[in-house]
Specification:
Number of helices: 2
Number of strands: 0
Distance between the termini: 43 Å
Order of helices and strands: HH
Largest sheet: none
Radius of gyration: 17 Å
């Protein structure tokens, strides 16, 4: 099994890679990603908060 490699490049390089990746997606794939982000956002917004005893 290959070891996991973390990318510790500068933020500018990482952002340019993300932009290039998104530019290569089809409109259907972009819509799927947007839909997933909206679902996650809604789940986080409506999630029940967990209170700790230390507070």
């Amino acid at each position: 099994m290959e070891k996991l490699k973390l990318n510790h490049a500068s933020p500018i390089i990482l952002e340019s890679k993300r932009v290039a990746e998104v530019e290569n997606l089809t409109s259907a794939e972009r819509l799927e990603r947007l839909s997933a982000l909206i679902k996650i956002s809604y789940m986080l917004k409506s999630a029940k908060r967990i209170e700790t005893k230390n507070r």
